[in-house]
UniProtKB/TrEMBL annotation:
PANTHER family: GLYCEROL-3-PHOSPHATE DEHYDROGENASE (PTHR11728), GLYCEROL-3-PHOSPHATE DEHYDROGENASE [NAD(+)] 2, CHLOROPLASTIC (PTHR11728:SF1). The gene is gpsA. This is Glycerol-3-phosphate dehydrogenase [NAD(P)+]. One of its GO terms (molecular function) is NAD binding. Pfam families: NAD_Gly3P_dh_C, NAD_Gly3P_dh_N. It catalyses: sn-glycerol 3-phosphate + NAD(+) = dihydroxyacetone phosphate + NADH + H(+); sn-glycerol 3-phosphate + NADP(+) = dihydroxyacetone phosphate + NADPH + H(+). Pathway: Membrane lipid metabolism; glycerophospholipid metabolism.
Length: 320
């Protein structure tokens, strides 16, 4: 089967390197010829410096590659997914479309697989998610991911295609649970970064992670996820990674805020828009999600970290 990777950023490039190294037929499709040329000339993506491309990996900006592919990995940020799919819907129809992004679309408050089903109705939507830094995948370090798609047979095809010796893909039919775990952990990771940057300590981080995980499960269940999915790689697994590593852009975004510094505005930090979406979903479904709400309030400048801490600590005491 032919694979095309849409979005030549850090994650798309890492997946393309790993799959090409495992002898899959892969083309990395960059957004512009200039971007493709930069990657080809340097034989590496500046967003993944130190990770050379294998010779077998094709790089281009030719969207005809989508038509020629059987499987397209969508490694564009979540808020860009709808436009990307709408712009290329005819080339993408009939294909396996595997979202590799972690977020909730602000227009419809739905996850990537719903956006795919809406924009390209005759495709097979799937989501690839779980604890994984692009650098780890590109270097061939052992990584375990979840591949979720609503039909088991399609899941098996994609699981076999995308697994390599180092990249172990587990299968699930719970697309909602898998994509919500990956999206929501980013919000909590920003909160964890704020706590550490603000000098609140590791115990506070652990409290935020645990209470935040409870909010992730609460929202996911209301939206139709299976609770056990949140306990797996795409939920708990990715929460643990992202809240504890300075390789995470979401964690580092929070770290900068907590330290009173300006976060790097050029980085892809999915948790900011996801926090906005969560607040809208909490209102819609009448849910109390205090950790996610204060993260959104801090990111949008409505609360300082100190005010957020006071708000959280002055909530009424309750049963766990
Ligand atoms: N970087 C990681 O370690 C990592 C790991 C797992 C998942 N992810 C997820 O992958 C997604 C992408 O993250 P990233 O790290 O690759 O970000 P990135 O900022 O490195 O790259 C995003 C890429 O998308 C491209 N893009 C944006 N709009 C496009 C469009 N309309 N058409 C074609 N290309 C377009 C950009 O040009 C850019 O190259 C995010 O949802 C992120 O959560 C990232
Ligand atoms: O750099 P982040 O914060 O987008 O995290 C990357 C991955 O989602 C970790 O699994």
């Amino acid at each position: 089967m032919k694979i095309a990777v849409a979005g030549a950023g850090a994650f798309g490039t890492a997946l393309a390197i790993s799959l090409a190294d495992a002898d899959r037929d892969v083309t990395l499709v960059a957004r512009s010829q200039a971007a493709a040329d930069t990657i080809k000339i340097g034989q590496e993506n500046p967003k993944l410096s130190g990770c050379p491309l294998p010779n077998s990996l094709k790089v281009c900006s030719d969207i005809a590659r989508y038509e020629a592919a059987d499987v397209i990995l969508l490694a564009v940020p979540t808020q860009k997914l709808r436009t990307f799919l709408s712009d290329h819907s005819s080339a993408l129809s009939g294909k396996y479309l595997v979202a590799c992004c972690k977020g909730i679309g602000l227009k419809t408050l739905t996850g990537p697989t719903s956006i795919i089903a809406e924009c390209v109705p005759d495709s097979t939507p799937a989501i690839l998610t779980g604890p994984s830094f692009a650098f780890d995948i590109a270097r061939g370090l052992p990584t375990a991911l979840t591949l979720a798609t609503s039909k088991g047979q399609d899941g098996e095809v994609l699981q076999n295609l995308l697994s390599t010796r180092a990249l172990r893909v587990y299968r699930s039919e719970d697309t909602i649970g898998a994509e919500l775990g990956g999206a929501l952990k980013n919000v909590i990771a920003i909160g964890a970064g704020i706590a550490i940057g603000n000098g609140l300590g590791d115990s506070a981080r652990s409290a935020l992670m645990t209470r935040g995980f409870g909010e992730m499960r609460q929202l996911a269940e209301v939206l139709g996820a299976k609770p056990e999915t949140l306990n797996g790689l795409s939920g708990f697994g990715d929460l643990a990674l992202t809240c504890t590593s300075e390789l995470s852009r979401n964690f580092c975004h929070g770290l900068a805020i907590g330290r009173g510094q300006d976060p790097d505005a050029k980085k892809t930090v999915e948790g900011i828009s996801t926090a906005q979406a969560v607040v809208s979903l909490a209102t819609k479904h009448d849910l109390d999600l205090p950790v996610c709400s204060v993260v959104d309030a801090i990111c949008s400048g409505k609360l300082t970290p100190k005010e957020a801490l006071t708000a959280l600590l002055s909530r009424p005491l309750k049963e766990e």
